[in-house]
Write a structure and sequence with these properties.
mainly alpha; 96 residues; globular
Length: 96
């Protein structure tokens, strides 16, 4: 799920993987107890922000601190990474 992190770029390095990554996000965030619309998986960030008290809103968020934004993104990305590690560990255990 590596992303190209050059300034202004939020594209996945694997062309065509966007839909699969979005569906994985839906699955993981539902497991975390969040209501996620599969047609708008990135909107889960607003629900996450609300639950942790971060005033994130659609549109301009220039007054939002980097720390606050990181709390939202970290909650989502961290959950996804933990799930990927769990899946990799299960796959390794099965292959032995």
């Amino acid at each position: 799920m590596s992303r190209n992190r050059s300034r202004g770029s939020r594209k996945l390095l694997v062309p065509g993987a966007e839909r699969s990554v979005d569906m994985f996000k839906v699955q993981v965030m539902r497991q975390e107890g969040f209501a996620v619309d599969p047609e708008r998986p990135n909107d889960v960030k607003y629900e996450v922000a609300r639950t942790i008290g971060v005033p994130l809103a659609p549109g301009y968020n220039g007054k939002l601190t980097t720390e606050s934004a990181g709390k939202v993104g970290g909650r989502i990305g961290g959950s996804m990474v933990r799930e990927m590690v769990k899946l990799a560990q299960e796959q390794l255990a099965r292959s032995r």
